[in-house]
Amino acid sequence: MFIFLFLLLTIVLSIPIGRYMSKVFEGQRTFMTPLLSPIERFIYRLIQVDEKEEMNWKKYAYSLIVFNLISIASLFLLQLLQGILPLNPRGLSGVRWDTALNTAISFVTNTNWQSYAGETTMSYLTQMLGLAVQNFVSAAVGIATILVFIRGFTRKNTDNLGNFWVDMTRSVLYILLPLSIILSIILVSQGVVQTFNSYAIVQTLEGSTQTIPLGPAASQVAIKMLGSNGGGFFNANSAHPFENPNSITNFFETLSILLLPMSLVFAFGYMVRNFKQGIAIFSVMMILLLMGLGVALWSESQTNPLMQKLGISDGNLEGKEIRFGVAESVLWSVATTAVSNGGVNSMHDSTMPLTGLVYLFNMGTGEVIFGGLGVGLAGMLFYVILTMFIAGLMIGRTPEFLGKKLGPEEMKMALVPLILPPAAILIFSAIALSIPEGLAGINNPGSHGLSEILYAYFSALANNGSAFAGLSANTVFYNLTTGLGILIGRFATIIPAIAIAGSLSQKGKVPVNSASFPTTGPLFVIMVTAVIIIIGALTYFPIFALGPGLEHLLMLGR
Amino acid sequence: MNIAQGSEKMKEGTSGIFQKKILLEAFKGSFSRLDPIKLLNNPVMLIVEIVALIATLLTIKDIFGGTSVSFDLQITIWLWFTVLFANFAEAIAESQGKARAESLKQTRSEAKAKQILDNGSITEVSALSLKKNDIVLITEGEVIPSDGDIIEGTALVDESAITGESAPVVRESGGDKCGVTGGTKLLSGTIKVKITVDPGHTFLDNMISMVESAKRQKTPNEQALELLLIGLSVLFLAVVITLRAFSSYMGISISIPILIALLVCLMPTTIGALLPAIGIAGMDRLLQHNVIALSGRAVEAAGDVSVVLLDKTGTITLGNRMATEFIPAAGIGYKDLIEVSLMSSLADETPEGRSIVKLAKRELDIHGRDIHAPENSHFVPFTPETRMSGVDIGSRRIRKGSASAIEDFVRSNGGNVSTEMQNMIRDVSTKGDTPLVVADDTGILGVIRLKDIVKKGINERLLQLRNMGIKSIMITGDNQLTAASIAAEAGVDDFAAEAKPETKLAMIRKYQSGDNQYLVAMIGDGTNDAPALAQADVAVAMSAGTSAAREAANMVDLDSSPSKLLDIVEIGKEILITRGALTTFSIANDVAKYFAIIPAIFSVAYPQLGILNIMGLSTPSSAVLSAVIFNAIVIPLLIPLALRGVKYRSTSSVSQLLSMNILIYGVGGLIIPFAGIKLIDIIITLSGAAGG
Known about the structure:
The complex is a heterodimer.
Chain A: H1 2-25, H2 33-46, H3 57-80, H4 97-108, H5 118-121, H6 124-154, H7 164-189, E1 200-203, E2 209-212, H8 217-226, H9 247-271, H10 275-301, H11 305-308, H12 325-338, H13 353-364, H14 375-390, E3 400-401, E4 404-405, H15 408-434, H16 436-439, H17 446-461, H18 476-505, H19 522-555
Antiparallel strand pairs in A: 1-2, 3-4
Helix pairs in contact in A: 1-9, 2-7, 3-4, 3-6, 3-18, 4-18, 6-7, 6-8, 6-14, 6-18, 7-8, 9-10, 9-12, 10-12, 10-13, 10-19, 12-13, 13-17, 13-19, 14-15, 14-18, 14-19, 15-17, 15-18, 17-18, 17-19
Chain B: H1 3-16, H2 20-32, H3 36-39, H4 43-65, H5 70-107, E1 112-116, E2 122-126, E3 135-138, E4 148-152, E5 154-158, H6 160-163, E6 169-172, E7 179-180, E8 185-188, E9 191-195, H7 203-212, H8 220-249, H9 256-266, H10 269-288, E10 291-293, H11 296-304, E11 307-311, H12 312-316, E12 317-328, H13 334-345, H14 351-364, E13 377-380, E14 388-393, E15 396-401, H15 403-412, H16 419-430, E16 434-440, E17 443-454, H17 458-467, E18 471-475, H18 480-490, E19 494-496, H19 501-513, E20 520-524, H20 530-535, E21 538-542, H21 547-552, E22 555-557, H22 564-602, H23 620-644, H24 654-687
Parallel strand pairs in B: 11-18, 11-20, 18-19, 20-21, 21-22
Antiparallel strand pairs in B: 1-2, 1-3, 3-9, 4-7, 4-9, 5-6, 5-8, 10-22, 12-17, 13-14, 14-15, 15-16, 16-17
Helix pairs in contact in B: 2-5, 4-5, 4-9, 5-7, 5-9, 5-10, 5-23, 8-9, 9-22, 9-23, 10-22, 10-23, 11-22, 13-14, 22-23, 22-24, 23-24
């Protein structure tokens, strides 16, 4: 019941936000325009951008890549040099090169995989100027990607796909910034810390001293949740009482995981002038989310048979914060793996095997169940294109979607994000399992160890960033392979999305009428859902059987 | 040829698939296609061939190594069968076209031609040496040496060599029926023909190379689908290769033949094997409808067409107007008018004239041919100058003709046309019919209503088009009123009246470049249709039409039947549906194969995973073997479907069609292999074959 109301509220909130987003991105006036448009114009003057200038797909992709490269380089340097830079009350030294590189890649790509512990590694300056800034702009890059994709469908006979800098500015200024200010205020009011003071040193009851890490956490937590980032201020992420102190903050944080990814789906519906299409795609995502949620909730409400022998029978509470309990933890985790957020409020390593399987599946499908900001919906559109190729022919027409014919060019571009990341997950995991550097990271042998490694690469390739937490991943091997994986996962989605838009926008529109594939009906929803499940299942069947599947069976003692 | 005959032909063709000779040819073809160079065209099957080769080498190595090879050997054999079955599918699809090409080659004439040189003299040359713009003389009984347009004379031509249609057709100079085709036979008449093609490019040559060419260009949709199949194959390759690392970490060792078996089962071999056959078979089906597609792209586009331009005459209406009513003028008896009309039409051989005789006989209740013109009568035929025809009986001149012509006639006799009469004439026109006015020296006797008769069944066919989401537009030179009336009766969606030759071109451009880009199909025959044909996405020229029209088109209808467009659209859709259905089926099949192979591999080391063996297959080796065998034999089992195509049911809505196909090929594709693999497993277990 709690979950039902929660989802209902999220949907109700995300529809108007979606409408607002569609207006912002189409350059229409909104209630925020009087306040923000002077700032927007000022930024354009500052970075010398002509708001009206349109880019073709190559120029757009070029701007995006250059922006990301500069971001990675500067974040990398910031970490290496943080020891001699200000706002470092704890006097933390520079970050190790491989960790810094991994972190730079990870935050620039909206992944926020953290192989380090925040409070003992990053200075306040790095957290704020580096990580928090990237939390905003990496989310905006994702939004820019889906905007171009949508323009590919809505525009015709043109090369023009919008302006990268304008899209970035509007995303941050009109959407991410206002919402995270609101969320920060709520969080601070509930006790999330926000201070530049150094860590507190307190006397414990036993008389010894304890250092309690503090910092400007609330502002970063807000965007971490909203921007599908997930990189925690503290190592324990949102299980940490200073990031997520009580059920109220937990409620708002969970809500903000789903809020913008959901809103974007509705914004898509508005922007393609076919709201029903938005609802159809929303339904696919919702069905997949609920299926995973159902399995995970059932699985976590079971008590581990090994624990049962010890007389414990309250569901699987290992690795969970008692203040959240099973339902709130599972809801969070399903949402965070589905949405590519990656923030956690419980220990995924300690979940039941089948729950872990749900988390793996959510990521393995390429984060399309709402998914990361922008890129999630883009990934879903790739699946839609695939579905139209497989099943769309069955009405006796060549495949089309939203009035655009899908040809070899679109197929080629859709195959890259659908095939490269899963193949890379398998290959990286296989390498890790075959060499000592990889095997050294495993905490538990057997099936669970397999799951730990799989989770790391699933999370990297899906740009999720959450960790199973069993794996010791802060080694050169894992930092480099996950870093590479993150890059593949990110750009194998973004570049094809922009390229496909370049091809689609040049085409004219074919009429959508009674003879077209009914892409807003239940059949469409069922087909897309089935394609996602089948392709996912076909790719991961063997490893899921050996990993979580076998672990589950062994646990039951069969 | 009408549509009924067409489907008759098609039945013949379908049963012909399994003729012994064709089967034998295809059997040989499936081996000659093992050549890897030839398989480059079909990457999925190329991968299967490569892994089959690896499996073979491993098995041979094991034979010399002295280990038991029975299981590996069986896997290897079935892998080769998979490739052979795929080759067989393509070969059998091609053999049909080849058989047709053979029979065409026999008709290619080695005959001599009488060429008229510039100085007017006639020399005998070989038909094969005729070039463009040469002029030849052809007399009765000769075979027409090459393609061309008649520039002088009228001919009765037997085109059965090309169309298979025995009824001879009339071809004459001028007009839109001047085209003759090399290889056909002149039955009567003497004609001069201007050759329009160079040697090797005649219609017959094109047709032969079209139907037998193995190097068919892939259509965009085939290319896209092939990319998908390659992509999936690559993904499954990654799955299978990495599986070795995962299982060895878990302490399981998997032999390479089993990995290969898994790979081949997962790869979309079913659709990969049948994809080329589907396309070729589609062209063959068009051929059975006597349509030659000059590009595969056009056949595919036919499935996407959303606007068709239809000529009124011949497509929507029977060619000619028919008399349906006699309306006497004031003071003239009904029977009197009929008798006069009958007299004036007895010798009139035009279709209109004959229809008047027929109607008059029915109205007067006379049967048989017991009516003769009076002794002193003299028939006056229609001339463009008078625009009337009629009969002189003694001194009485009876005339019938268009309102304006008869009015002139009456006035020249000093008569007058009453307003009442004018109203009556206008009344007929406003209903969209043509008034044929009858008069004699005394004045107007009455009006015969001539009606354009809409073809039987055209309503249903147009409704089918509408259900397919295709907009039909009637093109006619008639005036607005007539056009509107016929359009309403036939049920076309729109019409263009008083159309000039350039109207079609303008219309196609408008639909192709508007806010929505429609794909337009049209059928045409005349030279003035050529620009429009060149512009249309699906352009069907009638083989009776001018060579300009044939050159501009991307399909040629040998029967010159204007309603062929509907068949073409249907076949285009069937090809696409078949592709989609088999792709869906192929991918859905994989689920069951996983459930057969994965537990077989893992349950030796981890008996717990035996729980995945939901089919209850008897042993691990029989499970793997069953999956491989199923994967192989499903190909030949589906060949008939690939050749015949999935039927397009135009009566149902798109959603119904889709849900039906998803149910059969999607859900069916999930379930059938479970049953199939289980069945094969039972057979293997009973026969004790999987003794590995």
